[in-house]
Write a structure and sequence with these properties.
Elements: H1 2-36, H2 41-63, H3 79-91, H4 105-116, H5 119-129, H6 132-158, H7 160-189, H8 191-199
Helix pairs in contact: 1-6, 1-7, 2-4, 2-5, 2-6, 3-7
Organism: Micromonospora carbonacea
InterPro entries: Cd-R_transporter
Keywords: Membrane, Transmembrane, Transmembrane helix
Length: about 200
């Protein structure tokens, strides 16, 4: 029983450390859903599960030695949230509420994958060291925490103070959040330095 608790705790800590920024993205999406109806709350939840599932699957395949993750080239996925944010910023009108940055399930999944591509570098060595039973515990913990993340973000996205605040500044804040997250992915992944070396 002690081993099970230790394994679950380790999984929870790794998930929280690598997905803390997802709460911000999810909250922004839930506020947008409340104001514009897009993306639908069900699409946000399903897209988050689909995105995290894809990241975990890629890490598991890489851990098994069947896939070589082209690190740091996965950092180029940071271009996706940057592009979504810039598009929403250019398309906005001053009388709008929060703009629609992501429109559906696949868009949410894409942003989740882009935002978590660097997580694979953390997950791969961990998954290599896990016994099958422990890996199952990790999957259950990850699935439960995706649900918790969505519940927390939905609660924040429905809080009157948050809704009012985003209603006032959402026309630039929502796209800015996506642009900043994309820029952070590009910078912290090391892909810009690699591109500089390749071009130089």
């Amino acid at each position: 029983m002690t081993d099970l608790i230790a394994t679950a705790t380790g999984a929870a800590l790794v998930f929280a450390a690598t997905n803390l920024d997802d709460v911000v993205v999810l909250t922004v999406l839930f506020v947008a859903a409340r104001g514009t109806g897009r993306p639908r709350p069900g699409h946000i939840v399903a897209g988050q599960y689909l995105g995290i599932g894809a990241l975990v699957a890629a890490a598991a395949v890489a851990a098994a030695g069947l896939l070589v993750v082209p690190d740091p080239w996965t950092g180029l996925l940071g271009l996706l949230p940057v592009a979504l944010g810039v598009r929403a910023l250019l398309a906005r009108s001053d009388d709008d509420g929060p703009p629609v940055v992501v429109g559906g399930l696949l868009g949410v999944a894409g942003v989740t994958i882009a935002n978590g591509a660097d997580n694979i570098a953390v997950y791969v060595p961990v998954f290599r060291s896990l016994a099958p039973a422990d890996a199952l515990v990790w999957l259950v913990v990850f699935a439960a925490l995706v649900g918790l993340w969505c519940a927390v973000a939905a609660g924040l996205g429905g809080h009157p103070a948050v809704v009012r605040w985003v209603g006032r500044v959402g026309h630039w804040l929502v796209p800015a959040v996506f642009i900043v997250i994309g820029a952070l992915i590009l910078v912290t992944s090391g892909v810009l330095a690699r591109l500089g070396d390749a071009l130089g």
